[in-house]
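Researcher: Can you fold this with iron/sulfur cluster in place?
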Amino acid sequence: MSEIFNMQSVSFEKVSQFLKERHEPDFRVKQWQQAFFKGKCLKFEDLTIFSEKLRADLIENFGERLHPVECATVESDEQACKYLLKMDDGARVECVYMKFHEGIKSLCISTQVGCPCACAFCATGGIGFKRNLTLDEILGQALYVAKTTEGIDRITVMGMGEALLNPNIFDALRCLTAPNMFGLSPQRISMSTVGNIEGIHAMTQKFPQVTLTFSLHFPEQSLREQWMPTAKKYALKDIFEALDEHVRVTKKKVYLAYMVIDGINNRPQDIAHLRQWIQERGDLAYLYHINLIPFHPIPNLNLAETPRATAIQLQKELERYGIEATVRQSFGKSIQGACGQLAAGYKKA
Ligand code: SF4
């Protein structure tokens, strides 16, 4: 995992440096930052406040766009848009833009092309791992969607890939929160992990205010190992210890994502395991919140969709034991995105 923040590698920094080396006045640097991050500029040719010559020099040095991301397809309904984005090398990843009832606009971004974790319930896991997204590619998703929509209030890092396995994610968080770039409050960013313990520790130290979600899904160790191969490396007991440290240090809630697969992980014994994990947290238990997600079918996995009512029933049972739980808001079947459920269309594309 990268310990050094390599901000120089991001195109944004290179453009600022380029302008400084040309002895352009400081206000030019501010102008272009404003245009790209606060305004609607996506291409250098749109930077009409600059001279034609300066625009041409920028295009010659950096290409037409700031970030190597183009939209291949977009599917939308009233509440959500799912983008299939094409990277410069042809790789495709998905991101989902959602409008919540409260008016909040949220973007779920990807961090890897495919995923090495190979969770059995996940479409991305079925693709296999191709590569990490670069810093520019991670930021490019947010930049593209922010410029072509009503804007972004929140970012969730829960799309394709295990974010904490991509060393570029920490630089990306810096850029997303930097006032002269995206300027998002860290409280408005959520990070999801299948339980990468080194990554959880890094989040506690470097980004304590970013909301952490642990994709638990199976509260019994051996069942979890069957469905999520990374569970063999990271035992639930050790992950919960890392999460305890996180909530102790940050005093922030941690979320446990729980994809409800009817008949597989909503049996009485699953509820008993879940209760036990929460009870073992002792006086930190109130900082754990379970987010139930009804399972949505994926190709090549012969499992039926879990009705929302089934998830609500589980929620009520957990609440009877004093465990805080909610059922995630639904966004329509074609666009339903949980960690890794975004990529059903990837192979077709
Ligand atoms: S659920 Fe998340 S970590 Fe697991 S394979 Fe899918 S994208 Fe990777």
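Model: Folded with iron/sulfur cluster in place. The CA atoms of residues 99 and 105 lie 5 Å apart.
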